[in-house]
Amino acid sequence: MSSGPALRLRRGVTVWLTGLSGAGKSTLARTVASMVGDETEVEVLDGDEIRRTISSDLGYSRRDRDVQGRRVGFIAELLASHRVLTLVPVIAPYAETRQAVRQQHEQRGSAFVEVYVSTPLRECARRDPKGLYARAAVGEVTGLTGVDDVYEQPAHPDLSLDTSEVDAETGARQVVDLLVERGLLEHAETSTWPTQVPANG
Fold first, then answer.
1. Where are the beta strands (DSSP E) in 35-175?
2. pLDDT tens, 10-50?
3. pTM of this structure
4. What spatial distance separates the first Cα and last Cα of the chain, rounded to whole Å?
């Protein structure tokens, strides 16, 4: 749990964290979630967990990846519309998919923030938390986003973060600062100061 004043949600919002495998999306999402107060409903919709459950029928074709992104986007908007801070760390490699999710939020009046976790491929491959890059290098995995399948970088993200340059706490605070700036989060009051009475009063 991060130190500092707790944060309270003023309006439900989807924070969509897109980037390559190993970029640090899930770590950022969990760190942001740890910064909010107990009064705030928060959910992390991790792409890997979604694939193991409601998207277990999908593969990794372009169509299936698009369907996966739109499914997650539908759930995220539903949660955001019910005043939940919804953090979505997913690769979502196609600009068309991400734009469709943004438009769905806009049409339903839900807030949407896109964070591009822009950690370079070489750093993601060095970390290789799932061993995917190593397997791709020896031909055991094909269609790996950023290696032999496309990743379309966001042209106009609301925020870009390179986790090879900032740690999770610093990056998460930048996300929080953006949400506060846009009136979606606010700092919860941690104490009530007594009113000072003038000495001659």
1. 42-44, 85-89, 111-117, 159-161
2. 999 999 999 999 999 999 999 999 998 788 899 999 988 99
3. 0.89
4. 44
